[in-house]
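The instructor's notes for this session suggest beginning with a concrete chain rather than abstract definitions. Hand out the sequence below and ask the class to guess, before any prediction is shown, which regions might be ordered.
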Amino acid sequence: MTKLKPDSELLERYKVKSLLAKGGMGSAYLCFDKVQQEEVVLKLPHSDQLGKKKKRFLREYSLLSQITHKNIVKVFELHELEDGRPFFTMEYLKGNTLKEYIATRSTKLIKSSEHTLQALKLLEELADALCVVHSFGLLHHDLKPENIILVPATSSEPEIKWQLKLLDFGVALDQFEHTAEEAEEGSLFYKAPEQHKGRKLDATADIYAFGAIAFELFSGRRPFNVTEDQGPIQAIFRISGMHMAGSVPVLKGLHPKVCQTVNRLIQICMEEDSELRYPSITEVLERIRATRADLRNPSWVEKIVGRKS
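After discussion, reveal the predicted structure:
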């Protein structure tokens, strides 16, 4: 794979400033666009990822270029290097990943109505973004806290401090046409059980990952006590075994003050049997909005976050 060097220029337009991230399929660089006079993110596939991966890369750009949504990263232009590698530019989001947010703030989320409202607002925005993705007949297929950026919000609601942005559609799937090999892709700790079995996926696979993220957002930990150093095979067996034994952790068991509505929503999203999950992310979105509306009613606050001692 060929790396871009700092201070190098592409197409006499984009000046490379630094490497932001590197993944299995490509890298993201912070660049300065001399035409638009602004910083942008440049996404470039590795030189050894051409071929069938190029088609997927171009599909990612095609998808994002059609979507205009406040909770999905904006893309700008598509170009090609002399070696045949395509690249596209997108907005540079100055914020933290949801993973970083969870690591520093999650223990506070259940301790006050303000923190609970913020958590539900973030989940509402994620569900809203997924509604758009699914309306295109696609699955994001790689939902995880690392693929979500939080930027300062401009909300009129004083307790809402962050706005969510969903990114990285590199392994997005066509809901109706995908292979078993493609279905198995994704991030281990957020995969739906059917992904490990190579089954055809539908919107409920994203809903499962959504539930896992929601669990982590409220608890500060993943739903399953599995770590990267255990290896993917052992992790899959452990997660599958917990599902089969009916011993999937329950959020309310960890934090009794979490309202039952949130607790039940996460449980349904993470059902092992995809037919028992919510059939659409639209229904999840509606339930989250209703819960937020209830929580904003002062008479519900004590019921949801518990009476202070």
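Then share the key points. Residues 300-309 have pLDDT under 50 and may be disordered. The first strand starts at residue 9 and ends at 10.
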